[in-house]
Amino acid sequence: MNRKQLDPEGSPGAAFGRHLRTSRDERGWTQDELGSRMGYSGTHISAVETGRRPPTLHFATSADKALGTGDQFARRARAARTSALLEGFPEYVAIEGTAEEIRLYEIGIIPGLLQTTEYARVLADSAVRRGAITPEQADARVAFLEARQAALTRALPPVVIVVMDESCIRRLVGGSGVMERQLQKLVEFAALPTTVLQVAPFNIGERRPFDLPVNLLTLPDRSVAAYAESQAQGHLDRESASVLPMLTAYHQLQAEALSQADSVAMIEEVRKGTP
To answer: Which residues have CB under 8 Å from 214's CB, separation 6+?
Structure first.
């Protein structure tokens, strides 16, 4: 039997289709059997699994009910339907969930993987007020982030190494209460056994090797992929010739940044200074 190979890197919709097929296979159901439980035809199930048909929210909710997956597919459907994500980012997220090591550098805002839902909602709502996205896209953006974070809570989680510019913890987002809870989450993140958290202080000056946020992934085959973005677009790069120098620069950044203990102390100092 010929089976179309699914490419989860193609889009959030493709990732939805692969997850649906995997969940169905785990239960030993055919497409017709799943369709019967959901109120859809087996042909419809096939079209969604192979990316020929986008999942509607009703379809995703029916899948959650039939498969007993809570709101997992509903969240993925909202993510798949959003058009508020930068070009290249959905492709990056598709492989981020398989990475063995994740290295992040961020300027100005807390990295997405470490954001509280409350903090993420403030940023999304701000984009709505500026007219950059619609309220529906804001909802999808937050749901996409939640699905992205959930994908990392697997049995063998990746090592996550984060370096944040000092501006990330000092920039007030959403008021003192939102920031206090966000900074507390950073402290809790640093205490996990598979994480490293460092702050790159302002005083490293010109020794900071990056002027834009950077994401680096070490994949199961030990290859390294990089993702970087500007205000207008993102770019996923898997070419060793350009990615490995970025990895070297990241190591140099870590050497200039505060130790994890000193970073947590700075975060606590900022947090306690928040009324």
So the answer is: 103, 104, 105, 226, 227, 228, 246, 250
The C-alpha atoms of residue 147 and residue 142 are separated, in whole angstroms, by: 9
pLDDT classification of 1: cutoffs 50, 70, 90: very low
What is the distance of C-alpha 61 from the center of its chain? 22
Rounded to the nearest 5°, which phi and psi values hold at 251?
-60, -40
- Token reading at 45: 């199930």
Residue 127 has φ and ψ, to the nearest 5°, of -65, -35
Q: Confidence band (pLDDT; 50, 70, 90) for 80?
A: low
Tokens of 173: 């987002």
Same domain, 38 and 156: no
> Does one domain contain both 93 and 163?
yes
Sheet with strand 101-106: strands edge to edge:
195-200, 159-165, 101-106, 214-218, 224-229, 234-237
Residue range(s) defining the domain that contains residue 210? 89-114+151-272
pTM equals: 0.70
Going by their DSSP bridges, the two strands 234-237 and 195-200 should be labelled as: unpaired
88: left (phi over 0), alpha (psi -120 to 50) or beta: left
Quick one: 256 exposed, middle or buried, by C-beta within 10 A (0-12, 13-18, 19+)? middle
C-alpha span between 159 and 189 (Å, rounded): 12
Last residue of a domain, one of 81, 104, 134: 81
